[in-house]
Input
Amino acid sequence: MTAGRLSPAVERLATLCGAVADSFEKGAELLKETTGVVLSASTVQRTTEATGERIAEHLQKGRTFGGKVAWDWFRDACGRTVGYIEIDATGVRQQGPNGEATDGRMADVGMIFNPLPDRERVFEGLPKPGESMRARYTSGLYPLAEMGPLLRRQGAQVGLGHAEVWVAITDGGAGLEDFVRLNFPRVEAVILDFYHAAEYLAKLAAALHPTDEEAALAQTTSWSRVLRDEGGEVMMRVLEEWEWPNRKGLPAVRAEVLGYFGNQVHRMDYPSYEANGWYIGSGAVESACKTVVGQRLKGSGMRWSQEGAHALCHVRALYRSEHSQWTDFWRRSTAA
Output
């Protein structure tokens, strides 16, 4: 069979196998093993990528999948319902004409999600047994600005507007804070990922103790505790008032770290964030970069056409979102 002659059921299964297996060859093997349907790897590839193109076309036309639902947003330590927004990007290797390597592209991954509350800080409206985080993902090789409408529509579909507080978490990537504030103007805080900031402290500690890993680790731990317990402004004063030795390479690293903290300090009020019961790490979207993009598109030796990578990002994002999204897309495709 060829991609254009597949029944809707086989098309759906071929797309699923092509999207979740390690390669299209493995996808064809998985399809045969689980269903007895025999397709070539190239047919599985064309089918999967064509599905991704259709998903992207629907989204670009302002469509979403399934009806509107009202998530039961969990509460923070002040008893307010909270909706979370995160966005990040991950590199995807590209293949140029005639199979030549070319510059990679960044795949954006955005998410609207309702994480389980921190039980050490939140005591009201706790999840029921077996309840898990709910998330909607959007991904593709888009300019950052084009991700805004796509992510806003996902938020509108799950009732983000009904959450009393919006919180965003990003790393220090260029333009991410402005992106969030433009597209989600009600956001109460655009938190800088704590662990990203702590990596800068680790870099400075290594420059301070270049030959003593144990001392560098102890210094990183000490500074990170100050950052988390006292916030970015106090951490900056500590670094500015530190008695720095005259050590090769240290002034440049110190200037880099202080410059970074100076630009981001308004997003480092970690004591207040945690007192509110909010998360301070972007682990959810970093995990999404791996599960939505990395697990399928960043295997050893893999290189993609721009169109192929863009299509696969859409298939993976839809499949990794709530199951109703995947089901409704195929229901709509079958009806069409």
Remarks:
- The beta strands are 82-95, 101-114, 134-140, 165-170, 187-192.
